[in-house]
Amino acid sequence: MSAVLPPATGKGPRPKAPQASPAAANAAAASFAALTARLDYLEPADIEQVRQAYRFADEAHLGQMRASGEPYITHPIAVAAQCAEWKLDAQALMAALLHDAIEDCGVTKPQLIERFGAPVAELVDGLTKLDKLQFNTREEGQAESFRKMLLAMARDVRVILVKLADRSHNMRTLDDVPRAKWSRISRETLDIYAPIAHRLGLNATYRELQELAFRHLCPWRHGVLEKAVSRARSRRRDLIQKVQREVEQAFEAAGMQVRIAGREKTLFSIYKKMDEKHLSFAQVTDIYGFRLIVPGVIDCYTALGILHQMYKPVPGRFKDHIAIPKVNGYQSLHTTLVGPSGVNVEFQMRTEAMHVVAESGVAAHWLYKADDAGGDTAERLGTKWLQSLLDIQHETRDAAEFWDHVKIDLFPDAVYVFTPKSQIMAMPRGATVVDFAYAIHSNIGDRTVAAKINGEQVPLRTELKNGDVVEVVTADFSTPNPAWLGFVRTGRARSKIRHHLKSLEQGQAQELGEKLLAQALRAEGIEQLPGDEPAAQPLWDKLLRFTGSRSRPELLVDLGLGKRIAGIVAKRLVHLLAEQGARPDALLLTRERFTAHETVSQGGVVLDGSENASVQFATCCRPVPGDPIVGYLGRGEGLVVHAEDCQVARRLQHKDAERFIKVEWADEPVRPFEARVLVTVANGKGVLARVASALASVEADITHVEMDDERTQDATDLRVLVAVRDRQHLDAVLRTLKRTPSVMRAQRLRAGRSGD
């Protein structure tokens, strides 16, 4: 049995015990007896429920074999055994035994609900990948599966505990899988499952997953390091034994009860340190260490004092994770001392309760039920992070984007900062003031305008450092800035900012969609849109069924973004109104059709420059107020405004005429517009300054300049983007440039044209 169920020690599988025969070994591994001895903490009724789940799984997997040749049921038993090591409840053990039933055996969720109850079925469903759905790419399917698992985990942490037990056993038996799959599975384990285990404080599982992934991802490097550590271990055995004897004697003399255990750095952590800090193996000095388990919290600090009296501490290598726990609930005192022969030795001091939490993290909730666990244990053990997954999901509907946010939060490095009221907060390394504001509350993040660190005013992009006291200044009128996405670090902040920007964009698209539909309806002879009063609801319901939209706002947003054509929707709406007895207004119909060819009708979209995401001004022709313009309703990109004589617009009109709508300039635009100007100048000193001065004299701002590299020639072309109020202002700019010394020619640049 030991070959099937190795312990989660981080040191790889145990050596196989001698067996009578492979067939006998398989039969033993596939029997419920392999699990029974580990279930002594459960009530007899619970054990019977687990037995029923085993029988169901055994029958469902009948005839299926693993890559190693063992019966498939040995895998669910091994997963359940790991969950039993964590003392999980009967429901979790049943889910562990049944976790592949839906995915591999055709068992349905309703069947599981009927047989074992809804909680077990929910756990199994949360563990089931979305293989049956069709996705465009492998990455898309993987992202959706992870989103499903993580959200199930946020609702019930047992989902991820069973999943980590499943991944641990798969990694222990990866040698039996074709070598071509090693890299992908190991990389996924390192990038996703090991960080999740660390984030939830399951350090033993975290170390084991890293170690097994490293061994299969880089077999040669793992082998070289393993031999080097083995040689170093034999060379330093006497030294380590001497340190242990001296420490035991010192604590005995102090009359203090202590349990001392040796601790060796994992091969992966050694490799990572060598790689990141560019060290040779000989330069890694803290391979060996000791863990001291003491009765109480005060004893941890007493033990620290005893050790510091024995050996000199290394400056800057002391960490108090008891006073300031890590974000996953880990607590210990760490110190590095200069031992005999000048060798650095790390010591960790913790209580028994801290040791259980350090090794098992969230699983300690079941594994360790001491009276002094404290009421905040659940919060300390990563529950806040699990809750944040639900917050991120609320604002993020796209699976890849959700997974992108979550990956950001999986990095374990943290800095500890204080609020002005001395409350301590753990933030990821590299987090900024804006991340801090959103960590306090989303409303504070949304309204942030300034910040102080340690009493001094700082930019919002300032990265936080350990011990900073951070004060956030808010204002009711403030809203999230899109530029924040360039520097925020936490998934929570990123998802909140994106959600706000999307809401803003959708509001503007809805407004534009309503204008377009009203305009199209006027062209059909109907004066105005039906309102949203209850009497009009059946009409809207019929229209929504026709378009496939879920709600009226969604339909209007789709119209504003160009995903639907207003004319088609308007014709359907007129048909529905006709069924209710409404008739088009003949006078309005005549006026609309007459003006459609003469001038822009009253229903046209009026542009004043205040439009944001819903309206874009084409960069090919850069129209300015005074230019004749047309509007193109691009698919999914909102309304794009082109100059009427733009070649790009003419090609689009030839292919997609029904997507063009009438647009007009407002009488008084509220902002300047950019125009592209080509200025040919004679090479010489100060010519650029003269051009800039000429533009300033007519109140035209330069927003961008490109210059040809033609210093050896007599003339150079400057391509200048200038901000102008309207066509008349642009004409004044061109006249002023033409009169400027050294300027040989000045003209407006347009796509597909040589100029004005």
Question: What can you tell me about this protein's structure?
Answer:
The protein is an alpha+beta fold. It has five domains: 22-177, Hypothetical protein af1432 (Orthogonal Bundle); 221-371, Beta Polymerase, domain 2, CATH 3.30.460.10; 413-489, Beta-grasp domain (Ubiquitin-like (UB roll)); 499-665, no CATH class; 673-748, Alpha-Beta Plaits (2-Layer Sandwich). It has 29 helices and 21 strands. The strands form six sheets. Strands 1, 2, 3, 4, 5 and 6 form a six-stranded mixed beta sheet that branches. The chain has a four-stranded mixed beta sheet with strand order 13-15-14-16, with helices on one face. The chain has a four-stranded antiparallel beta sheet with strand order 19-20-18-21, covered by helices on one side. The chain is extended, with a radius of gyration of 35 Å. Mean pLDDT is 77; it is low at 1-20, 130-137, 368-382, 594-603 and 752-756.
